[in-house]
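Section handout 9: paired folding examples.
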Amino acid sequence: MHFLGREPIGDFCHHLNMSPAPLLAFLGVTFLLPDVQTLYCQWGTVEVVKNVSELPYEWTNSQTTCETGEGCRETAILIKNGPQVTLLLSKGCTMEKDQEATVTEHRAGPGLSIISYTRVCRHGFFCNDLSTTDRLSGLPTATVPGTLRCPVCFSKGDCPENPPQQICPKGHTHCYNGVLEVRGGGIATNLRVQGCMPQPGCNLLNGTQVIGPIHLSENCGPKSGNLVCKKGTLETLRDVSTFPVEWTTPWQSCEIGEGCQETVVLIVNGDQVNLVLSKGCTEAKDQEPRVTWHRAGPGLTVVSYTRVCRHGDFCNDVSNTRTFWTPPASPDARGSLRCAHCLSKDDCPENSSQQTCPAGHTHCYKGVLKLRGGGIFSNLRVQGCMPQPGCNLLNGTQVIGPIHVSEDCGPKSANLDCKKGAAEAIRDVSTFPLEWTTSWQSCEIGEGCQETVVLIVNGDQVNLVLSKGCTEAKDQEPRVTWHRAGPGLTVVSYTRVCRHGDFCNDVSNTRTFWTPPASPDARVPGTLLCPHCLSSNDCPENPPQQICPAGYSHCYNGMVRLRGGGIFSNLRVQGCMPQPGCNLLNGTQVIGPMDVSENCGPKSDTVVCHRGVMLQMGRRLHQEPVEWEASGQQDCSPGEVCQETLLLIEPAPGQQSLLVGSKGCSSPERQDGPAVSIHSNFPGILVASYVRFCSSNMCNSASSSSVLLGSILRPVPPPPGHLQCPVCVQFSGACSDDSNIITCPSGTTHCYKGSIDTRGGGLSATFSIQGCMPESSRSLLNKARKIGIFSVHESYEEENSKEKNKKTKVPRKHSGASAPYLAWVVGLGPFVALWCGGFLLPVKSIFP
């Protein structure tokens, strides 16, 4: 689940005919707004590099409608570097207080120089009307040249290896080489700069960190191996007359090796277009920009643009539909067939409007397009004209970029699809309203969709808890509940249960039910001072103090517990209350699917851990990470800690391997951090483990087997030897007599046949193993009795290489479940549940 700031994802061209006010403003009529709360403001961003000789530079912007109480903002930044100047411009709405137009020299030059213009206004529609660089006076002029020569570069990509040189002004003694990172106000860019500076160091910004809504930082170290990509999702239905459409997106830092992807899909039906947009990081390999006509029309049309790139930060920078599609200039010849016309994320009306189909179209289409992936989870109902019968609008397409697509032309299913996700985050109040995206799930027959959002506000901090998914609860209209209204500590929730359509639990931001107070400083302060803390961990011993509102007489110190709906959280709270007692929740015990409670007693030494068991078998488990998801959470007993343990057994390269994992509570172990152990290795059987014990809430949070695989080194395979052995790893029962026979690598001298009994962490199983072994090894575990949470015991047949017919079997030293019983347990697949210490522990079991 991803939380996004308030930055709009697109400017979809609010039309001037939407009300008389913006139309008159556009025509030059100015309005004074003493009593009007809603403003129309100019909106947009500009990022452009120009020659100084091209100044002054002019621009035009789009418009937007602000929320009640918001004003219009504008910020322009000019960065001069020799003969070039970069302009960064951001306009839009803001809750910031009014500010007169201000010009600031952040670095005066000569050489590299930075000047900015900022303004916030509410005195009229479109009052943020800066349209030229004229007002940004003060750019330095040429000065006496010195003797130093420096590279000169202004680039959103890499600077060239041999950039052009410039003679620096007199008094400039150092060459600057760094990256300006610009984030906010709809701008997310890295600007690489080389030029002249009067002193050494990485301080082009002269300490400036914020200009209007734009945060700036610089980095003069070696280039990071991590890319930064544009990130965002959108689905919107528009009239074809509004195209081309433009958008801006937030950004994200990728993992090492990931690239940037962008996918745009247009589904055109007559005078309507459904636009789907997905941007972000991806593990997919690079792909040049590609335009694909999945159905070319006329009539229904489906066209997409996809790209994956790694050549530079924000390389997924397509920002409009001009790149791949413009509306047809004139309608095609019409035929005689008339079909219902509908393009909707909801149900089509019973009597949809009719359209005359293009000539040659002989059939009417009626179906549902399902789009899943890349942050998009949508059902689009379509009715329109097709040149042939059948349910094949997509022409066989199943995947577009990260989005899986399918269509269904049968009767409407009784099963709902719902948005699904659970998250908890503490944010500064200045970042609100917050937006989010979630994944999805298909519900059981009769289930509905639920969504629950809880905000716990404490001064300038807000804890947001979000839960979405399927539910058996009965329908409930959207409900906002003030469990504690504040000022001081505030608790407000939004809950809903619906069944009227797929993804009906579609609230995606906090504007629906809460916005920060317009002027929090206006409340009358009292005399009481209380500690201030909002934390999912421990509060500090000496937390900061806050002045409570007038009338508040007591300090609260407690822990709020939330359980259910995918949420398992302990939130520690210290703040101001109007009365004594442990009653922050005002008696509330249930919010949506969550049970809530509070405890103001002495601090408990218990922790909360992820819990679950994972079993997988496959042929590439040592190479390709697999997901390691916990099935639930667990309250530990006093003194216990969290644990996560992975065990990988691979009898030979390319053969079926076994991976088992466990998360949960455990007795404390002496271990400072994650530990990877290679118990046996190539050229024989690979047995490796990852173990972690930790003592903070939900710290056993590894999400894939990459925590183990990254430490396994696979040497160059030795040539085949002369020994042949059966290879096998079996979850239950003995390996069969017809196991694969392989030629062992050179360096192996005998065949291994044995088993490893594993107990603990919700698992009770015996793994049978066969494979090749080097002369130096007889045992796989080297007498190890403990691997993380697992108690292990190895039994194997000792084969004397000189007397091959003489065998000694090492006896087992414990009793356990019989092989037939274990085989029956595994046969339950994903429905299996293993008994462990008094509770049933779900097992995620995946067998190819």
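Moving on to protein 2 of 2.
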Amino acid sequence: MPVTGGGDANFEVGAEVEVSTRGALFPATIIGKGSRATIFTVEYKTLKARSTTGRNKRKALKEEVDMAVLRPSPPRERSSYAFEPGDEVDAFYNDGWREGVIAITSAGSSKFSVYLRDLKRQLDFECPELRLHREWVSGKWVPPLEETIVSASKEAKAIKQEELSEGSLVEVRIDEEGFRGSWYAAKVVKVAGQDKYLVQFKGLRIDGDKEFLKEKVDKQNIRPYPPEAIIVDGFDLNEKVDAFLNDGWWEGVICKILKGGRYKVYFKESDEELVFEHCDLRPHQDWINETWVMASQRLNKM
């Protein structure tokens, strides 16, 4: 897992980074500088220090590392379930991101089988546990970020220009008691009439878990899958987000920022607060007039 931490990178106290150690990339925050210009003290977000008191609660691990094993935190990205066999990815396993390759994708399944190179093992992962693999080389991301952003933009425009058809990736809203405010990934099986579609969900199964649920939905309850490249380093208090829970995305609001890259989210429909990791949240977007609009953009227009 070659990582170049030098170059023109500017690592300041408070910067969000990833540390290459123990065969993986671990998210951390720079909390201090060492005696030399290339030495930094980091606090890990997922690794804990050994307890010296015998108590169950352990503090976040802090240690000094060299710049050579540091890189900035990569952009927040959400895949639109479009990974294919052979794709280079990072999989989140045992508190860190490990380099691997997509080995198998199953039609109708929300899981991907990934071969982890350092562990020499093949394991299954959900989409939120995967990201495109990139290297930080001489102060730049390889492959470059611009390609992903442009690709996502083109994808969104293509969706706007043509109607949903068989095979289109979508999200479906379930407007029933206990499900309001949630969206679920699905694939269009066929057009089932005027403004109606037969879809197969990627996470919801029928009784017995034998196969994925198929259902007819109205156009008003279906939208294209959101663009995959969304760059977010952190979320702000009172920011509107979607939280991944029970195989779906639920609309909520950040009500408290916790340590270790965690957030407490308030859900209006159920009047409850739950804690989520950063990787299980995404910026909230609305599909308005065949265009994706961020929550902040919508407020500015009102």
